DNA sequence: CTTATATAGATTGTACACAATTTAATAGCG
DNA sequence: CGCTATTAAATTGTGTACAATCTATATAAG
């Protein structure tokens, strides 16, 4: 049946993305275990390290394309871990500024080896990471518009 | 700083996968809205449609690479939607068999247009879906071993 | 100045993911 | 046969995602 084939092929393509993402997240989970971070928490820390330790909640949400329903509790956990603190903007009382603590800054050092470890785990026969990234970004561009 | 660059590149590559997966899931969510299915629920229905309406819980878990902690509540919701039913295997009382209801079978028709709709939304400049799938599968193979 | 609108976050509710544990049933071994 | 190990699901607990709503603050229009 044509429909059967179509649904099966579709399954293959989109399931590939779904599965790969879960596998990468699981791989990160292992690497981040000793830092006591989840993968989304690691993404937040990356953004803060790149910004020198200070970033608005709004800017973070834009950067990660996540909303407050996801970020608010996630940030709460990072605060509970003593990695950052939250304060109100003086100019605009609606806005929240995130700032790394000393512990948050120093975690940067311990995270330095994570990228190369992950890269090593992902590299292998048939895997072309730049091509993969390029395709994923093109797809994201397509679906965002 | 070298570490800064490394962390930033890492972010780019893996964030691309993370973002693309969320965008595709959101796109499915729109297409599946009138079927009252989520994307993971749709994957379960696909597996059942392909198997002629009958599939063991264990086989489903293996196929989707999901554990019972994810599948058990998901299946409960599909049962609540009257799309399938659960029964124990006669030969092995530990095993559970999932079976499509009449409503579950007939939903197949209404789902037939989903793949081509998604394909159309994903197709565009710079997007090579076969290449993308091949890369994702190679990566999955690498991370599974 | 006051009201209407817009914006930033927080909150609420639903639905995954997944590690870890528990329960029930089967298989295998001495 | 009886006991141990294994296996299949369910359960429990934590942590995202995200839609929808709510609250507080700021901005704009009249």
UniProtKB/TrEMBL annotation, chains A, B:
<protein>
    <submittedName>
        <fullName>MarR family transcriptional regulator</fullName>
    </submittedName>
</protein>
<keyword id="KW-0804">Transcription</keyword>
<dbReference type="InterPro" id="IPR039422">
    <property type="entry name" value="MarR/SlyA-like"/>
</dbReference>
<dbReference type="Pfam" id="PF22381">
    <property type="entry name" value="Staph_reg_Sar_Rot"/>
</dbReference>
<dbReference type="GO" id="GO:0003677">
    <property type="term" value="F:DNA binding"/>
</dbReference>
<dbReference type="InterPro" id="IPR036390">
    <property type="entry name" value="WH_DNA-bd_sf"/>
</dbReference>
<keyword id="KW-0805">Transcription regulation</keyword>
<keyword id="KW-0238">DNA-binding</keyword>
<dbReference type="InterPro" id="IPR000835">
    <property type="entry name" value="HTH_MarR-typ"/>
</dbReference>
<dbReference type="GO" id="GO:0006950">
    <property type="term" value="P:response to stress"/>
</dbReference>
<dbReference type="GO" id="GO:0003700">
    <property type="term" value="F:DNA-binding transcription factor activity"/>
</dbReference>
<dbReference type="GO" id="GO:0005737">
    <property type="term" value="C:cytoplasm"/>
</dbReference>
<dbReference type="InterPro" id="IPR055166">
    <property type="entry name" value="Transc_reg_Sar_Rot_HTH"/>
</dbReference>
<dbReference type="InterPro" id="IPR036388">
    <property type="entry name" value="WH-like_DNA-bd_sf"/>
</dbReference>
<feature type="domain" description="HTH marR-type">
    <location>
        <begin position="10"/>
        <end position="145"/>
    </location>
</feature>
<keyword id="KW-0963">Cytoplasm</keyword>
């Amino acid at each position: 049946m044509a429909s059967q084939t179509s649904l099966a092929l579709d399954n293959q393509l989109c399931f590939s993305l779904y599965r790969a993402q879960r596998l990468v997240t699981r791989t990160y989970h292992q690497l981040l275990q000793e830092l006591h971070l989840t993968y989304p928490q690691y993404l937040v820390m990356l953004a803060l390290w790149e910004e020198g330790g200070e970033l608005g909640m709004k800017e973070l949400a834009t950067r990660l394309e996540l909303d407050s329903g996801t970020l608010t509790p996630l940030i709460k956990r990072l605060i509970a871990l003593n990695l950052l603190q939250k304060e109100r903007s003086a100019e605009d009382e609606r806005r929240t500024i995130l700032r790394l603590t000393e512990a948050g800054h120093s975690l940067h050092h311990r995270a330095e080896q994570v990228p190369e470890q992950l890269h090593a785990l992902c590299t292998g026969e048939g895997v072309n990471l730049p091509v993969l990234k390029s395709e994923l970004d093109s797809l994201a561009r397509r679906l965002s518009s």
